[in-house]
Each structure stands twice: as C-alpha cells, then as structure tokens.
Specification:
With about 425 residues, the chain is of the alpha+beta class. It has ten helices and 15 strands. It has one domain (about 60-420): Cathepsin B, Chain A (Alpha-Beta Complex), CATH 3.90.70. α2 packs antiparallel against α5 and α4 runs antiparallel to α5.
Length: about 425
C-alpha cells in the first residue's frame, strides 16, 4: 500500500452548499466538528459538482473539509504515508494548529528500519517491500517523531521527483544477504549498514532543525504539534472475524501486524459518514485495481454490468499513478450499481479479487443527482484530472473495496465506543 497550501479566506458555511453550486476560489477553513456544511475544500477554481467535463453526474457537497494540497508520490509505493500524514495535517487544521506539511519520506525511511528488524527476526519469512498501512504512522511518530517536509524531502542531487525502484532493490539485496548468513554470524552493526543505504538515497535524518524560527528535534516537533497518536483508531469490516473483534488484517503490507476493530458493514459505513459530518477526515486503504475505478475520470463505482467498461493497459505494480485507462459511459452517465452485502464483500476478499492496493484521504462527501452518497477523496497521484487530484467514490465502491480506515477516536459514536471499549 500507499500524497501546496490552500488559499485565502474563511468561507461562511450557512447557505453555501446548495444543489448545483460550483465551488470556486474557496479557501482554507477550520475543520471544527460543528456541522456538516461549514467547511469548504480550498482549491482555487475547483468545481465539485461534477467529476469531469461533459459529465451527466451532478454532486451536491454536504461535507467538504480542509486539507493541504494534493501531492505526487511519483514512482514510490508510499501512498500509506502520503494519505495518513495528509489526514494528520487536516487534524492540525481542525484543531486550530495551522498548516504543517509533514514529511512522508521521513516516515517511510524509519519504516524501512522497523521492517528490516522484523524481517531479520523472521529469518526472511516476512514482507519487506515499499508498502505499508496507515496505522504504521502513529507507531513511527511515537518512536521517532516527525519533521516538516521542507526539512526532509527525501530528494537528493537536485532531484524533484521520487523514484525508489533502485533503493528498494539495494535494500532487499542487503537484507537477503543477512538472512542467508549462518545464525549469529552477521555483524551487530547491520542496522548502521542499512541506514547507510537509506542515507545514500534519501539523505540523513536531521538530529535538530529550525522551522518557523524555532529549533526542534523530531520528537520535540511532534510534541509541539500536539497530536496524540493514541487517539487514532483503525476500523474495518469483514465476516471472517467476529463483530467488534480487534484483529490484524491479513494483507501483506500489514508488516507490523497492527490491529483494526471489526464492525458490521452498515455500521462501518455509517461511522464514516458521521465522522465526515462532524468535521473529521478519514485515512482510507482500498483496492483500486477495479474496472470501475478511474482516477482520470474522477470517479470510482461498481457498475452492475462491468462489461460496459473497457480496460486499456495495465496498472503498475506499485499503484503509484493513474493506472490503466478505462473507457465507458458509466463515468459520464449514472448507472445502476451492484448491491454490496457483507457476503459479497467477504467473498471478494477471500478470493483476493479485493486487494490492498492504495492509501488515500477522504476529505468530503456529496449527494449525487442519483440520490446516492459519494465520498470525496484526495489522492497522491498529482493533479492531472478535472478535480485537481481528487475524485469521487460511490458508497457502493466504498462498501465493496475498502480494506480499512483510520480516524480520530472522538469521531466515533458513543454507542460504538462502548462496543469496542
């Protein structure tokens, strides 16, 4: 698995979100959980009422929450870092702490160290790849702190775009060589060797840095931001575990085997809607290798008849770009979608037709002209579509293809908190 500061003024919520409104020249708003229409996503000249030009879809935004501008993960499989840090950046805005662009590559770098430790302890019988899960971020920040992106970009020698293909190949070769040695024969300095590789490709991490006129360490900066990493909870919905069970989702990128709370599907979906209406954004992990997922068209849905969609080309292995091209009228004209039941969702997961592909950030919600709910999602594939790097996801797609979410625990209804305690 698998993200430019918003503009000028605070826009009053009252009376703004009306059917057919074209949202333009909006600016950053405080994400205070005081209602479902008090925050406008601050993108200049962004029309949230449709997914692309010449589309018959019409969207009436009902919750639009502040976030920092869309970024591009480039040729890396670090969507999990982009998406979850984007959610934490929105949390800082919601809490009135201002705009802070956090370093995705700082988190990814320390994740490699943690992955390597587990990989070696498991004698190579564990995942050591670029991917990860959203719940990796709280664990990394609690142990290593965090830095602003301007302090640690992970780019060297004048590079402006990330490409981790060579780095991961070298890292894997290094770890595989250690595993092949006889037990007890590798040097106790092997972590320094690993960090040397990371320093060569990403740059050494700073022990101290100056930001906005003050000097910090990574840990003191995390303290300054004031986010409690224990306040964030992972949720999911499957039937191969009991309702309200806390379990490790069985996907390869869950290398840390961290756990999520298992909710019934209807309750899971409603929890997300309620959180958005309260002003909380959501880190979202999902399958994006479906015919009905088209970032280019600004829409993901589950057509009842998928044969109407032509898939051209292939998704790349890291799901770090717009993927295969999709051609269908389904992205321009509303179509009937499949009815997604817990049984259908579980069957897709068991058969591995639902896979853990990509991490994204849910920043809003709209009511479509077809009277269906659509979630507004911030991606990390750049801004090359009609919605400037965002897209809409139908409720059916969310119910069908979600792996997990992460959200602040204050967003959960009290009835749910009592169930998971």
């Amino acid at each position: 698995m698998n993200n430019q500061v918003f503009k000028k003024s605070i826009v009053s919520a009252i009376g703004i979100l009306v059917l057919g409104l074209s949202i333009t020249n909006t600016a950053i708003a405080q994400n205070k959980p005081t209602g479902n229409s008090n925050n406008l996503l601050p993108f200049n000249s962004l029309d949230l009422t449709k997914n692309k030009t010449q589309s018959a879809y019409s969207f009436n935004p009902t919750a639009t929450l502040a976030c920092l501008p869309v970024e591009d993960q480039c040729k890396t499989s670090t969507c999990w870092s982009y998406s979850t840090l984007s959610m934490l950046e929105s949390e800082l805005i919601r809490l009135g702490k201002g705009q802070h662009n956090l370093s995705q590559m700082y988190v990814a770098r320390w994740a490699y160290v943690e992955k390597a430790i587990i990989y070696l302890r498991m004698n190579g019988k564990h995942n050591f790849e670029q991917g990860g899960e959203g719940h990796d971020i709280p664990s990394i920040i609690k142990k290593y702190g965090i830095v602003p992106e301007e302090v640690y970009t992970g780019l060297k020698n004048g590079s402006t775009r990330h490409d981790h293909a060579e780095m991961i190949a070298v890292l894997k070769g290094y770890m595989e060589a250690l595993v092949k040695r006889d037990p007890g024969t590798y040097s106790t300095d092997w972590i320094k060797g690993l960090e040397g590789i990371l320093d060569a490709y990403l740059g050494p991490v700073p022990s101290t840095f100056t930001y906005q006129g003050k000097t910090y360490t990574p840990n003191s900066y995390a303290t300054f931001l004031g986010l409690n990493m224990d306040d964030y909870v992972a949720l999911t919905s499957f039937t191969h575990h009991q309702p309200y069970e806390h379990f490790a989702i069985e996907v390869q990128d869950n290398w840390a085997m961290d756990r999520a709370w298992n909710l019934p599907l209807d309750e899971f979906t409603q929890t997300v809607k309620d959180a958005l209406n309260k002003g909380y954004t959501i880190a979202w992990a999902a399958d994006v290798s479906e015919k009905g997922f088209s970032f280019r068209d600004g829409l993901a849905l589950v057509p009842e008849d998928e044969s109407t969609i032509q898939k051209i080309g292939k998704d790349n292995a890291g799901f770090n770009d717009a993927g295969a091209e999709k051609k269908s009228n389904a992205f321009a004209e509303p179509v009937k979608e499949k009815l997604i039941t817990p049984e259908l969702r579980q069957e897709a997961f068991d058969k591995q037709t639902t896979t853990d592909d990509h991490g994204m950030h849910i920043v809003g919600m709209s009511l479509g002209s077809d009277n269906k709910t659509y979630f507004l999602v911030k991606n990390s594939w750049g801004t090359g579509n009609y919605l400037g790097g965002l897209f809409y996801v139908s409720e059916s797609y969310f119910r069908y293809k979600t792996i997990s979410i992460m959200v602040h625990n204050d967003a959960l209804p009290k009835s749910l908190v009592k169930k998971i305690n």
